[in-house]
Structure formats: C-alpha cells, structure tokens
Amino acid sequence: MHISNRIQNMQFSPIRKLAPYAEEAKKKGVKVYHLNIGQPDIVTPDTFFEGIRNFDESVLKYANSQGIDNLIDSFIEYYKKWNVEFDKDEIMITYGGSEAILFALMAICDPGDEVIIPEPFYTNYNSFTDLAGVNIAPFITKAEEGFHLPKKEVIVSKITDKTRAILISNPGNPTGVVYTKEEIEMLSDIAKEHDLYIIADEVYREFVYDNLKYTSALYMTDILDRVILIDSISKRYSACGARIGLVASKNKGLIHEILKLCQSRLCVPTIEQVAAANLINTPEKYFEEVKAEYENRRNIMYNALSVIPGVICEKPTGAFYIMVKLPIEDAEDFAKWMLTEFSYNNKTVMFAPAEGFYATSGLGKNEIRMSYCLNCDDLTDAMDIFAKALNKYMNR
User: Fold this and answer.
1) Which one of 122, 137, 188, 359 is most buried, by most CB atoms within 10 A?
2) Does pTM surpass 0.85?
C-alpha cells in the first residue's frame, strides 16, 4: 500500500527514538536516568488540580475554538507582569506550543516558502515545517560563542524571495542561550528591512539565570505587527501533559485568520483549559523556588561536564538544557551503547544525540543535548555514571 512522501520524509524525534532501547534496559532491571527529554520532575502547582476539582458541569461540552474566556483572561493578566498588553482577540489557545508553531507557519507560509532558524534548534521545528510544506534555511551558532547570534550580514545572507519569517527559541532549546537586547533589536531591524515575521518561541521565559535580564520580542514596539508569540504552560508550571499553549500577536488580522485553523480541530480539551485558567493564582514564590532549583541543577551538570577530558560545552544561561560536544565520532552509537551494553551499579544514562537538532547535513554528529530536569541527587549520580561510560566507550 502507498505511504506518502510527506510521512516518509519526516524524521523520528531524536529525543524519543531511542526510547525502545531504554525500555529494554528497564526490563532487564537497569535504572535509566533520563537526561534526553525536558520533562520536569517539579511538582505541578496545586492551583491546576484545584481548577479540575472545581469543575462541576454535568456535560463535558466543546469549548470555543479560540479558547475559553477564563483562560484567555488569565493569560492576559499573566503577560501584564511582563509589561506586555494583549487584547482578547489577539490570543488563540492551542493544543500545546507545538500546535501554535504549526498554525503560525501555516498562516504565514505557502508550500515551498522558507523560514530562517538558528541551528542547533528544537528538533520538532523540522516536523512542523515538514507538515506545513515549509523549508528551513539555517544559520549556524557556535558553542564556543555561547550559541549567540552571528553578525547581521550572516543572517541576512539567508534571506530569499521565499523567506517569510525568522523562528527563534528564547531562552533556547536545545542550547540554553538567552539572547541579549541587542540581538533581539538586530532581529527586529532585519524583520522591518526585509518584510518578515518573527516567530518567537518563549516557553522558557521564566528560566533565566545569573541575574540576566530577559528581552522578549514583544518589547520591540516598532514591529509588534510582525511578532508572533508562541507560549505554553508546560515548562513554567511543570504541566507538560495538559497540552495547553497559545499563539498570540498584536496583528489582529493574522490572529483572526488563525481562528480558521483552530475551528478545523474544533477545540482544545475543556477540562485542561479550566484547570490552566486557575494557574494565574499560583504564588510568586513557586517560580522563585523553581528557578533557584534549576539554576542549582545547571551548575551540577555543567561543573561535572567541564572536568571531563575532551568535552566541550559552555555554561547555559536559560531553559534547562546543555549542548555538549564529545571527543567521539558518533553520539548516537554512544547513546545506544549506553542503553544496551553499559551500566554502573545497575544504572545508566539516556541523552539525546544532537544530529537531529541541525538542518545542515553532517553537523551535530559528535554532540548531544542533556536536560537537567532530574533532582540534584539523581543528577549528580547520573553525571558520575556518564563520565565513567564515556571513558569506557573511548577505551573499548
């Protein structure tokens, strides 16, 4: 039977494709430390579950395709804390940040159009662009430079008559970079000069360390009609399974068009929206404690990596990931080996090979992405095991 080229050309997630090896290891009684995925172990605020407990409708109905009023209002209130003002008709609730990115691409691009993305980038950007029929035009950022943006002319050189947008993750997944105000201003200038949108994936906004100041693309007031915000409750509230996100823009006409896509999938799950609307009542102390915890975890992982011979990485300043260059040729082979042939005290580590975070062929083959979403004790143990495994792998 025929299988479409579209599905055959899509890649499996490099974050999840080694999962069968991990499951086999667990069946053998091996404990697997998951550093491959950004699944926080932080407790979800009780305000979310309180919202569920307070749901007392006798019929679980379709919600409005745009999203329920209470949830949209709660997001409007949340953004005020970041000095961003939204009207109700400038926000569409989506099935996680993933659907928000897909809808944004489908709304501004035709098949064959292009978006510019700094690489390495969140691997599912590949999947979203494939589904939308959009091509990625990547430009390289380097670990040695903290994955900050290159000079303006490098980015501009990627622009063609097919270019429709610049897509960024800030703070960055998988790099942990936090772009400076000057970098965001540079992107703003490029968008104005070349008639482009900026799709700003800002789901890690809360996680900025070392007392750095965060600059949202929405602070660029002269291009607000060009900024498309992608957001989600998954990370800041440790509520990945709720699948609640949004796409927002001061460009009301664009958001009105995206409503067509929202209507085509009817609605986002009603109860999850009700629960998410109550998250606005989460105490500020929750965010302070979570941020401090992640900063501590970052330090544990970075300090452990920095003393391993041959390992190259820069200390990330945001999100909860580290990109690491290893003194080996094939990171995916190393990852499989760790799950199938190696254990220490009956434990091993799983991470994400980085080749899938690049669009340029050949890049990332000796790199990995690690997530510091484990508690400090487990993370310390995992990094000790990782160092022992790398040494053994290199001396086989």
Assistant:
1) 122
2) yes
